[in-house]
Amino acid sequence: MNKKDIIKAIQSQTKKSMSECNKFYEAFVYTITDGLKKGEEVVVSGLGKFIVKQRKSRKVLNPKTKQMINIPAKLLPQFKAGKKLKDSII
Questions:
Q1: Domain limits for position 13
Q2: I need a labelling partner for 69 at 20 to 30 A (CA). Which of 4, 24, 29, 53 fits?
């Protein structure tokens, strides 16, 4: 399922125009992204929570040159499914 499919599903359930549903979708994604940028935990009831985790810097072997290289620390978004979502899939 991609963005277009999600917007069509929203449109079929809400009976709103495709442009309005696109705005709903964009606002939802923007709100989650903005919250994560601020370092907040974003909880969507019935779905799960979006969090930002810090990945530590690490040294890895470059297979081409056989030299150790340093990969710097970085922030990564993560999603943890909620119980309701997990139970609905089983």
A1: 3-89
A2: 53
pLDDT tens per residue across span 65-90: 999 999 999 999 999 999 999 999 87
CA–CA distance, 83 with 56 (Å, rounded to integer): 29
| Phi–psi pair at 5, nearest 5 degrees | -65, -40
Measuring CA to CA, how many Å separate 28 from each of 38, 52, 56, 67?
A: 16, 17, 30, 44
Q: Which CATH number does the domain housing residue 47 bear?
A: 4.10.520.10
Number of domains in the chain: 1
Question: Which residue type is seen at 16?
Answer: K
Pull the structure tokens for residue 50.
């979006």
